[in-house]
Each structure stands twice: as C-alpha cells, then as structure tokens.
Amino acid sequence: MPAIYALYVINKSGGLIFNKEFVTIASNSLNDTLRLASIWHSLHAIAVQLAPAPGCTGIELLRADTFDLHCFQTLTGTKFLVVAEPDTPDVEALLRETVYDLYADYVLKNPFYEVEMPIRCELFDQNLFNTIAAVHRRWGLVH
After folding, report:
1. Which BP terms does GO give this entry (predicted)?
2. What is the fold, at CATH topology level, of the domain defined by 4-138?
C-alpha cells in the first residue's frame, strides 16, 4: 500500500534544515538523519560530476527493497527528499508542486526565516501534515 514515510530538506551546503516523519517504520536517531542528509548531498554532487549525459542534475530516485527515496533539487540548490513505500504514485508531482509550493508560501515568504537555516515555521508544519494526511486518506491509510 502506498505511503509517504518522511520528508527531509537539505540546504545547498548539505545541512539538514528540516525533517519530518509521517509514518514511523524504523527508529532513526537525529544523528542517523543528519548522516543521511550529509551522505545524500555528497552522492548527489558526485552523480552530477560522473553523469555521462551533459546537463545531469544528480540523483532523482533511489530504489531499495523496502523504500524509494525521491529527490527534487530546486534551482537554488535546496534538496527535498521523500522516503516512500516502493512504487508510490505521483511522488515527483507531490514534491515539485505541493511540497515546494508550501515551502515557498510558508517558509520563504516568512519575514523571520533566514535562508539556509533550520525551518521552524508552524504554518509550514501544519499545512505539510494536512497535505500528507489527505494523501494518505486518499490511499486508504489511517493517519
């Protein structure tokens, strides 16, 4: 059954600036989450350099047996990562349109937010949670 497990936002320097778990599958510590962000940022940068095709922007999808990790990188270098159940539909659209729009509306337009710093915006959290809950309800998951 499709599900969105977690969302991570990594700044252009590779620092984790936001993380939220929606479905608890494994107990990841904060150190594990920071390590994931750092490793992903490095792998993404290496993939851009090693790509045989010109204009490659890095890794967009990592598939594993138990999860898919989707990445959307903005033009400013901010990366949005979603960990989802394998073969969950429309994750790219969710990242590019919905999550990024929420980020732009509630984080970037917040006069108290400093770019590249940790995201601590209650309206972003609430709207993100409501959006993911609505997606899970549409798929028949209890949230």
Report:
1. endoplasmic reticulum to Golgi vesicle-mediated transport
2. Beta-Lactamase (3.30.450)
